[in-house]
Amino acid sequence: MSQEFDILEQYVSQILKEADLGEVDVAFEIAYRQRLMIVIANRMGQEAIGMVPDDRSQEFQVLMQSQPKPQEIFAFFNDVVPDFQQKISGMLEEIKRDFLQKAYQLKQLKAHAG
Q: How many independent structural domains does the chain possess?
């Protein structure tokens, strides 16, 4: 398992803990956790690709055709995108804030319906 995957898994665990979803079925929690990881990873990927300078896009395409390891992709982004780690951290905070806000709203709706 890559270090990036471990970090993402820890991040998702933290978000779910803060969301305090209450008692849920274990199978549901596993599926939900996996889906959330996919959504976050996809968004990170889309955002990161958008940060690649035009003059380095060909280099990125060549890298991706070589079926690189996740570490190689992160190294590329760190090399070509100024402050890449900080930009990704900011994006992750935005995702977390949005998720927790939606979880809170859902809890409020559930409390008023119940």
A: 1
